């Protein structure tokens, strides 16, 4: 609690993370730390084939291994109506395969044993008779007339096409293109990547046979949503399901979906009457859990010859894998990709998207991304770079000319978004100033004369986070609103229960800071609880940088409810009318007599000891927040690289990142988020990609093949900020967690393309490995 003289360390303070003390002492409680009496262990047998018919499964040898308690197959799951489960995109996914396997790594059977090693050993004793089928490893092949149908389980599915979706106005866009001086086009593939959190997925399912109570410890970013899905899928009464998401070692979108392992472990616990633990290994995580991206995109921009943008047309083909499992709002088939007009005042735009089944793992998770905004941001920022090149204009100048002007907010985009606030010119100007743009351009010209390939890449992204307003946003029909419950104890200490689930973002600190600013209790006196569905209000979880825009707002709103009740109590204590009481920085005081005051602590004590007649005792409340709009953080990233012409190796010299996420609750945590996001953005641009061979084998099933950057490869980051508050968020904050992953890949690629433009290189698909860069240089020279 704040004393009168003490400054309240609320919004705007770089308070050190409360959770770190516990975590750095090794006192975290991660999923594999959960051990229950009588607990059994589960391991999953996965398909070695990408596409094959299952002709038979013989579990007798495995079942006979000492220590094995049960072997579960799809047939057994089917007897309980659990062989298939719904995905977050209204598709179905096999829990354990019954008819066919549809991707390498698909779940085929599970062994439950007295220890994890016996369970793993027993997998080798399960005999599966597979008849291989043609594997489909590209969405283009999937859509050919003679391609085998992957989803033969779905009666109405006669081919591999999943959806067609459009946004914008095709006719108006055609007219804009017909009247344009210049049309720039780009074909690119945003590669399949994987969030690869340091902790893999897992669960401990504990169903009490006597009471029917199901307590499931699970690595999930969305515990409440999972509880409801479990109730619907397993038919268990929802009040008997308790999902506990303990400390998470990262998520980045990977821990949003329901994976078959969770369902099988729960079914096994139900059938065996014992707790069952399942922990994925690294390879299982990389080959079978939610991947990200995998969009084949074609983009075209129409411009006048003086650089005025006239129209944008984008079509894409999404490789969805074997089951359509994207976690995204029901209404939008490719998430929020239609924000593809980005930071520009685009008079006409049209987007069309198709999705196809392939023999790859399902996913489409938003890896540190708001429902496909990453792919959209990449497309527009790459097109702007190439348009500048074609027009012979400076890319900063082209951006400046077409940015949505500051006074045009709230801005109605042509594809249906209302951007809340922005000042794109200010963010870019600051980035240019910090990087020393003009000087760099001169250095670049000089370097070129010396045969050195220096490149400067910009990306001025606009993000869209905080899903979302109930009229447009739901997952499986459940509206995307979130809650916060605040209880102030008699001694003035508080407990805040939130519906989102932290996975390293520092919510235990930042949400306490919101309470601190709103009612004046120091953040260390506000305990923040999350991740346990029995003890927190309902909400849709933490992903897509939505926690601050939704739960942050709910926290401010519940604090304000408490503050109002506090005003009544203060009036009673100060013996004045409620209208005569003012509140500031944790103190209620009499108007015109600031020395006549009561602290929030005194008021809290009175709520339990000395409240007026007719008032309910206690000081607690709950608020659910339905955001009136999304929030639109933005920024400009500037990257300087040097490319070695002989080898294609490129080195990052500078990364300047200017972000605007509105009001910053904790500037230090925001900077940490941006550093992490930039590291992941760099990784995607430079090295991370999940590929498949022609048989559908996943190349990238371990960290030797799937390259994630270490501190050695990761460049140094220089940060800057502008602050344009969100006008509709109670504290003016916008989300920030994913901004840098969304915005930065284009800046890295633009820098390399800028270095090579004069050689004739127009595009290199990510990741820009030195081999690919070298090949592009050779191809341009040979052209
Ligand atoms: O949903 P997620 O927590 O991943 O993303 P976020 O809402 O962008 O928040 C990431 C972290 O940055 C949280 O601890 C936020 O409270 C903090 N943050 C902040 O301090 N100020 C902002 N304007 C936005 C986020």
Q: Report the sheet-strand fraction.
A: 15-25%
Query: Going by CATH, what is the homologous superfamily of the largest domain?
Result: Aldehyde oxidase/xanthine dehydrogenase, molybdopterin binding domain
CATH architecture of the largest domain: 2-Layer Sandwich
Rg calculated over all Cα atoms: 27 Å
The side-by-side strand order for the widest beta sheet comes to 3-7-1-14-11-12-13
Low-confidence sequence ranges: none
Word description of this protein:
It is built from 19 helices and 34 strands. The chain has 3 domains: 20-27 and 482-625, Aldehyde oxidase/xanthine dehydrogenase, molybdopterin binding domain (Aldehyde Oxidoreductase, domain 4, 2-Layer Sandwich); 34-133 and 200-248 and 255-288, Aldehyde oxidase/xanthine dehydrogenase, a/b hammerhead (Aldehyde Oxidoreductase, domain 3); 291-407 and 423-467 and 629-782, Aldehyde oxidase/xanthine dehydrogenase, molybdopterin binding domain (Aldehyde Oxidoreductase, domain 4), CATH 3.30.365. The protein is of the alpha+beta class. Helix 14 packs parallel to helix 15 (547-574) and helix 17 (667-686) crosses helix 18 (739-756). Bound molecules: cytidine-5'-diphosphate. Cytidine-5'-diphosphate (CDP) is lined by residues 505-507, 510, 542, 545-548, 661-666, 669-670, 673, 733-737.
């Amino acid at each position: 609690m704040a004393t009168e003289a003490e400054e309240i360390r609320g919004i705007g303070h770089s308070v050190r993370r409360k959770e770190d003390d516990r975590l750095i002492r090794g006192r975290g409680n991660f999923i594999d730390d959960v051990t229950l009496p009588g607990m059994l262990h589960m391991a999953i047998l996965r398909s070695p084939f990408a596409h094959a018919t299952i002709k038979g499964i013989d579990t007798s040898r495995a079942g006979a291994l000492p220590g094995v308690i049960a072997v579960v197959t799809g047939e057994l799951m089917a007897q309980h109506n659990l062989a298939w489960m719904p995905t977050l995109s209204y598709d179905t996914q096999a829990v354990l395969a019954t008819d066919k396997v549809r991707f390498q790594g698909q779940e085929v059977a599970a062994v439950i044993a007295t220890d994890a090693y016996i369970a793993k050993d027993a997998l080798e004793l399960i005999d599966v008779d597979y008849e291989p089928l043609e594997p489909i490893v590209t969405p283009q092949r999937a859509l050919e007339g003679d391609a085998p149908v992957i989803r033969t389980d779905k009666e109405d599915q006669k081919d591999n096409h999943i959806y067609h979706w459009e946004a914008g106005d095709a006719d108006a866009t055609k007219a804009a293109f017909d009247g344009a001086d210049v049309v720039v086009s780009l074909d690119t593939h945003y590669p399949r990547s994987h969030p690869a959190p340091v902790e893999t997925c897992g669960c401990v399912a504990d169903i009490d046979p006597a009471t029917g109570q199901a307590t499931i410890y699970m690595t999930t970013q969305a515990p409440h949503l999972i509880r409801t899905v479990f109730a619907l899928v397993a038919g268990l009464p929802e009040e008997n399901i308790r999902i506990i998401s303990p400390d998470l070692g990262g998520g980045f979108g990977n821990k949003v979906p329901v994976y078959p392992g969770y369902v099988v472990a729960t079914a096994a616990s139900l059938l065996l009457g014992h707790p069952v633990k399942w922990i994925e290994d690294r390879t299982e995580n990389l080959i079978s859990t939610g991947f990200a991206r995998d969009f084949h995109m074609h983009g075209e921009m129409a411009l006048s010859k003086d650089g005025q943008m006239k129209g944008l047309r984008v079509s894409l083909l999404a490789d969805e894998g074997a089951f359509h499992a994207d976690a995204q709002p029901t209404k939008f088939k490719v998430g929020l990709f239609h924000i593809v007009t980005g930071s520009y005042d685009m008079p006409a735009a049209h987007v069309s998207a198709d999705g196809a089944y392939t023999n790859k793992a399902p996913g489409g998770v938003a890896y540190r991304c708001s429902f496909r905004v990453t792919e959209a941001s990449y497309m527009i920022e790459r097109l702007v770079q190439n348009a500048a090149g074609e027009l012979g204009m400076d890319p900063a100048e082209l951006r400046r000319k077409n940015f949505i002007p500051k006074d045009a907010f709230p801005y109605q985009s042509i594809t249906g978004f209302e951007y809340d606030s922005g000042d794109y010119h200010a963010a870019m100007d600051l980035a240019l100033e910090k990087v020393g743009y003009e000087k760099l351009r001169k250095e670049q010209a000089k370097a070129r004369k010396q045969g050195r390939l220096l490149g400067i890449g910009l990306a001025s992204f606009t993000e869209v986070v905080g899903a979302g307003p109930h009229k447009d946003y739901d997952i499986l029909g459940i509206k995307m609103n979130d809650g916060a419950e605040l209880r102030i104890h008699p001694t003035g200490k508080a407990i805040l229960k939130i519906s989102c689930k932290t996975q390293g973002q520092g919510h235990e600190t930042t949400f306490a800071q919101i309470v601190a600013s709103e009612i004046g209790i120091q953040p260390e006196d506000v305990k923040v609880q999350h991740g346990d569905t029995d003890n927190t209000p309902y909400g849709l979880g933490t992903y897509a940088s939505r926690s601050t825009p939704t739960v942050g707002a709910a926290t401010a709103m519940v604090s304000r409810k408490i503050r109002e009740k506090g005003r009544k109590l203060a009036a009673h204590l100060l013996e004045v009318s409620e209208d005569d009481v003012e509140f500031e920085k944790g103190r209620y005081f009499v108007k015109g007599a600031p020395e006549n005051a009561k602290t929030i602590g005194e008021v809290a004590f009175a709520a339990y000891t000395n409240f007026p007649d007719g008032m309910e005792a206690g000081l607690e409340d709950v608020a659910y927040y339905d955001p009136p709009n999304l929030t639109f953080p933005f920024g400009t990233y500037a990257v300087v690289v040097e490319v070695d012409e002989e080898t294609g190796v490129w080195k990052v010299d500078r990364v300047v990142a200017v972000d605007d996420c509105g009001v910053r609750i904790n500037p230090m945590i925001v900077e940490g988020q941006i550093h992490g996001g930039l590291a992941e953005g760099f990784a995607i641009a430079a090295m991370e990609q999940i590929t498949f061979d022609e048989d559908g084998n996943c190349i990238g099933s371990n960290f030797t093949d799937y390259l994630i950057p270490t501190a050695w490869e990761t460049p140094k980051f220089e940060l800057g900020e502008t602050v344009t508050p969100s006008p509709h968020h109670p504290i003016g904050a916008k989300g920030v967690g994913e901004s840098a992953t969304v915005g930065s890949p284009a800046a890295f690629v633009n820098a390399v393309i800028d270095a090579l433009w004069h050689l004739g290189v127009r595009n290199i698909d990510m990741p820009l490995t030195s081999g690919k860069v070298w090949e592009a240089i050779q191809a341009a020279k040979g052209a």
